[in-house]
């Protein structure tokens, strides 16, 4: 049985793609057949008369899969709110098409990680928001937050809004935490964990390097964290799929997923 998780952010530019790719890479290193999806990308690069989603390509690289139309069904040219970028491209974002792509991915992967665009309240089609897409796909949420001043408000608002519309928030990852945090950064994780109603599942370091280097280093750090199995169980994959946990690469637990 496939398990899906939707990764959203408290804002644009918080590092959702790196976090999603690092989780995909970590799962892949554990022997999990992981799929990825970036349903809507605005601000795509044009190459050989084709729009390409660099975010989706990074996710696909991390998961070791092809970046096909199911992984990135909507690639829009302008770096605008998706609804505006779609208008300029003469495109209407169709949730049914996205759901069909997701179902095809879910049919061939144990876990599918779906990265949203911006935050939950980003418009995709008329009055339909990213939050409506999450509802349509019936997926739980992982929230990626920044560590600096203002993040408490943004993160609590995101989790509160999700709860108001019936979305399940599995947890929060605070991304790009500085090596020398100021007073605001030092206090933020505790306040977020106390107020947003979901656990802090990670405080990920602010690293330098290429996107691929960041993904590899964060994935390695995640898999070396003694709490990584607990985090995966909270996210739900290990509960629904016995091979997502620590024994994924050498399963002898008799789970139905690997046939051991």
Question: What does this 3D model show about the protein?
Answer:
With 260 residues, this protein is an alpha/beta fold. The protein has a single domain, classed as Rossmann fold. Helix content is 41%, strand content 20%. It contains 10 helices and 12 strands. Helix 1 (16-29) packs parallel to helix 2, helix 1 (16-29) crosses helix 8 and helix 6 (151-164) runs parallel beside helix 7. It is globular and about 45 Å long. It starts with a strand and ends in a 20-residue tail after the last helix.
Key structural traits:
260 residues, alpha/beta, Rossmann fold, two-stranded parallel sheet, 10 helices, 41% helix
Provide a brief overview of the structure.
The chain is 41% helix and 20% strand. Strand 8 and strand 9 form a beta hairpin.
Q: Please state the overall shape, judged from the principal axes of the Cα atoms.
A: globular
The CATH homologous superfamily corresponds to: P-loop containing nucleotide triphosphate hydrolases
Tally of structural domains = 1
**Strand-pairing-aware structural class:** alpha/beta
CATH class: Alpha Beta
Q: What is the CATH topology classification name?
A: Rossmann fold
Enumerate the strands of the largest sheet in spatial order, edge to edge or round the barrel: 2-7-1-10-11-12
Please tell me the CATH architecture by its name.
3-Layer(aba) Sandwich
The average pLDDT value, as a whole number, equals: 91
- Distance between the terminal alpha carbons, to the nearest Å? 16 Å
Backbone CA Rg: 18 Å
Q: Catalogue the unreliable spans.
A: 238-260
Beta-strand content: 15-25%
The major beta sheet can be summarized as: 6 strands, parallel
The helix content is: 40-55%
Q: How many H/I helical runs?
A: 10
Record field, number of beta strands? 12
Order of helices and strands: EHEEEEHEHHEEEHEHEHEHHH
